[in-house]
Amino acid sequence: FSNEHRPKSTRMWRMLLCVYADFVEPPQPDTSLRSLAESQTRLPCHYKVEDGQKVVQVTWYKELPDGSKDQIITAHFMDGHTEFGRYSGRVRFESSSPTENSALLIPSTEESDEGSYTCHISTFPNGNFERHITLTVWLLPISSLDPVTLVEGQSFRVAATCRAVGRPIPRLSWDTDLPGQFQNRTSEGGSVSSYYSLHPLRGMNGKKLDCLVWHPGLEQPRRISNSLVVQYPPDATISAVPSDWYVGLEKAELVCDIGGYPKPQNVTWTWRGGALPDGVSVIGGKLAFGRSIRLNDSGVYGCVVKNNVGVGKTEYVLTVAGESKGKTGGSPDDNLLLIIIGASAGALVIILVIAVLLVNRYHRHRNKKLEIELSEKTQEINNLSRQNSFRRLNSVSTDPRVQVHTCTHTHYNKQ
């Protein structure tokens, strides 16, 4: 019956029931929801009844582009539930009592599930009630990054390409300190591409060039990590270990320090433009002398390295000293000890020289003093001797006997 033909008392009773019976969810007649593809989607529908009212049947519909409706699933309070057509096995009621809680679940949502849905509730005795839900299905972006191997000296060109597809269309950006430019292009189907271009230099090799993918379905941008690859020709330098070479030196080496990318794997050594001297072996980037150094090991040594970009070579003029220096050098501690010992020995020698000079000076002063005293004593003795001689002479002149005798003695001496 229509409302016009219903008894007045019945219409009044229905109005009273409508006051107490209503949808718990969704509260509004029209609701919009978003869901992610390949995730579970829940379409809410819960009609709450009061005493004297009963939900007889629940039916979910999806509106088609031509305006018609496609029946998805139905639940009857006595006959159970039924799934229809292509939805069979893809949808189910959330509750085991769908006439009480009529929410619909889509366990694995597909892009084709996007659209408008209707939850139709049939009650007794109050008739039918509906809720309309518009579902938008987002596709999380599928992204990729295609790096390009560059070579030093090339012109300005693309270094990496980042691509993404999703709903809504993702946004792309770059995280790098490299001096370059990028350009974004959007195509049909919800895909976008970003091209990062620069002028390749060897100092850029290994630098960060990450792509960031932005999408409303992601809590934070997705990072695709990438490092720029710039190849460049090798370079080489030779160093001698140790730096001073002399005849008899042991465990001497020439080291070829190699640059370039990719790093060269093979190193070629030459000597005076030809074969290496005997007793010498190549170990990686080293030229090792397995014997003591000879004078004729002098000469020009060459190191040649190659990679797939170019060739690098260098030369080193080695001069061997003619005389053996024995063990030269030493650790800083040994040198300091030698300096301390030498300084101590020098100080000791200076002290000894000073002591000898002081002693020598003392003895010379003393000898001079003794000479003076001896001279004075000698002069004093000579004076005493003369005085005694004068006295004896005077005494003889007064005694006649002594005089004759003296004369006789004097005469004898003359003879």
What percentage of the residues does DSSP assign to strands (E)?
35-45%
The biggest beta sheet is recorded as: 9 strands, mixed
Name the CATH homologous superfamily of the largest domain: Immunoglobulins
CATH class assignment of the largest domain = Mainly Beta
Shape descriptor: elongated
Radius of gyration: 60 Å
Q: What structural category arises from helix and sheet content?
A: alpha+beta
Give helix % range: 10-25%
Amino- and carboxy-terminal Cα gap: 208 Å
* Total number of beta strands: 28
Number of helices: 3
CATH architecture of the largest domain: Sandwich
Subcellular location: Membrane
Organism: Mastacembelus armatus (zig-zag eel)
Protein name: Nectin cell adhesion molecule 4b
Membrane topology: Single-pass membrane protein
